[in-house]
Design a protein that fits this description.
disordered C terminus, 226 residues, 8 helices
């Protein structure tokens, strides 16, 4: 609002403009599309339906609710700051909406970040690849908005900041929802050979069911099932 980032924004946008080529333009356009709200909502809907089929409907509800809340918050922040879109390049047709914070960046950070937490919680074996690929995707979406000249760099940084905040709030809500599912509760003490919390909980529950119960007349012997 005070204009202290003008020099940083202008210099970085011109630097990205110098990298423009048919190949980089195509790649950045594809990244920008992957961060558009319809695309993000479609991915979130797929993850939510999948979570519901995995008998975790509360996780799906939290995911959809936080993403929609993030979209509404972005609109309010744009109206509050009322920052005009970049005007450095006359050949770029700008949208009529305000610029700060970047909706693509904020929406993809929140949506993809929470979707990864839901999927990784239900499928721990996918945690590592998702935790590597998703930040790279979100980062490329933010860079694409600056490269295409539709957002100032600080718009993207603001989108990242608020998006991370929404992930933190969403993570708290997911943990609260997950606590209602006994099979999804994390195990605090992992043994040296344990793979993940879900497997350990399921194994302990199965073992508890398989253990025979001592009756009043079974003081001296225990029947061991074959």
């Amino acid at each position: 609002l005070q204009g202290s980032t003008v020099q940083f924004d202008h210099s970085l946008m011109i630097w990205f403009r110098d990298l423009d080529s048919p190949i980089t333009g195509f790649i950045m356009s594809a990244c920008s599309i992957s961060g558009s709200m319809p695309f993000v909502i479609a991915v979130i809907a797929v993850v939510a339906v999948w979570a519901h089929r995995q008998r975790a409907p509360r996780l799906a509800i939290v995911l959809l609710s936080v993403v929609l809340l993030s979209d509404g918050l972005n609109v309010l922040l744009k109206m509050a700051f009322a920052r005009p879109r970049p005007d450095l390049f006359l050949d770029i047709i700008q949208r009529a909406s305000f610029s700060f914070p970047s909706g693509h960046t904020m929406g993809s950070t929140t949506g993809y970040g929470l979707a990864v937490l839901v999927v990784a919680g239900l499928r721990p074996n996918l945690r590592m690849p998702l935790f590597v690929v998703t930040p790279l995707l979100v980062l490329s979406i933010g860079i694409s908005r600056v490269f295409l000249g539709v957002h100032w760099p600080t718009d993207v940084l603001g989108g990242f900041a608020v998006g991370v905040l929404m992930i933190v709030l969403g993570k708290l809500a997911l943990d609260r929802a997950r606590s209602s599912y006994p099979a999804l509760k994390p195990v605090l003490n992992h043994g040296p050979g344990s793979n993940d919390g879900l497997v350990a909980v399921e194994a302990s529950q199965s073992q508890a069911v398989a253990e025979p119960q001592l009756g009043e007349n079974d003081n001296n012997s225990i029947a061991v099932p074959a």
